[in-house]
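Structure, all two chains, one model.
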Amino acid sequence: MLRGLLVLVVLWSCGGRVAGAYEPRINYMLQCMGCHTPDGSGEPGRVPSVKETLVPFAGSPDGRRFLVQVPGAAQSTLSDAELAELLNWMIQNLSLTRSAGVPPFTAKEVASYRRTPLVAVQATRATLIRQLSGVSSQKP
Amino acid sequence: MRWLDSLAESSTRAVARHTSRRGFLGSLGALLLGGAGVLPLLPVARGAQPPGPGAGASPGAAKPDNSQDPTSCEYWRHCAIDGYLCGCCGGSQNTCPPGTEQSAVTWVGTCHNPADGRDYVVSYNDCCGKSTCGRCLCNRNERDTPLYAPFESNDYNWCSGSSKANIPYHCSTARIVAVAK
């Protein structure tokens, strides 16, 4: 019984950030910034900007699923908890629009979307942009 | 004095019989050449020369530390580089050479600096617009993934397909972006 409690305490204490893992700002640099550039604006015609779309996408169920399933996020080496933390950091720090009212991502929510691969990435994104009001139409 | 004349004549003839006129030049040359190996002709700072292969204790033991030399592949910032060093091509580890342009899209990784014991986020921006530099090719690739894991693979040419389509790759920089923590 005591041993079981000890294991539980150890597992609990590991629930936070994994030892050696980076803070979300550094994870953005290592996982996203190479293509999306330091401020998230990407490169026109090659890499889409995240600045205009992050908050509108995070405000809709389909958009939240897309943000997690997009290959660069879903296939990254981050854990579900780290990916949730990174998405929340991006919404807070890179978005042009205010993020009030957008619920933060959790590791559980990320895990529920992440295992399903997204194949038609550009078409899904274009459909989302058309569906969501308040997002100016832009080239992918 | 006749005996002195005959002595001089006989000894001169003896020398002439046993030596040739070119023999002296040959002996002098041999003396100079042979002597150069024993006694140096010019003052040389032999202490400044690197030790020969047999001078050290064992080969590979006294490997020079190039971790702080920006023009070396072993420079600490080059831990994941795959390309020509801009420092050898007219630029530096932070700047592109004249006539080239830095690619916006890049590969980002972390490198450990042994001088202060910290990890840094390093961005390997390619410089594009001139033909391949060809000097100081380095290929260390720490934490690089194969192309089938594309998001952390550095085997791309970041110049081709950019907004300035298909301009040639010249060299790579290694810029510090942040302290990794």
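Chain A touches chain B through 22 residues (CB under 8 Å).
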